[in-house]
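Problem: given the chain below (139 residues), write out its structure.
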Amino acid sequence: MFEDGSAAILVNELGRGAVITVPLSLAESSRLMPGLVRDVLDFALARHGLKRPFDIDGIDGDMDAVVASGDGRPAVAVANYGPGPVEIAIAALSLEPGRRYALIDLASGTRTARLGRQLSPWRAKVPGHGFVAFRVIPE
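Solution.
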């Protein structure tokens, strides 16, 4: 809800789906209310029995992110189209406490093992005109 009492988002059921309306651009919404944007994505995914495998902070307008989790081994890739490096934070959202996981840098093959919640979040520097890609696997 906005300060003036008006709705920050509207959800209208339509057939077997829903139309979600946010009265700001995605850029404005992400900058001003990133939690709301995450909630909208979570709502849309939950309608299909899906969950986000990662939370990614620090992405700007010159970047793209791709996530996958279909095989139970979540992966994330972030591309930076800008000229300078950008530091991001990535949090895996579905780790079991106390379980060991390996974080694999898919570009270099580097592998580190950590316990559940100690793995997340981790920081990565995405080089200018470059990318980073990681996979989290249980050990």
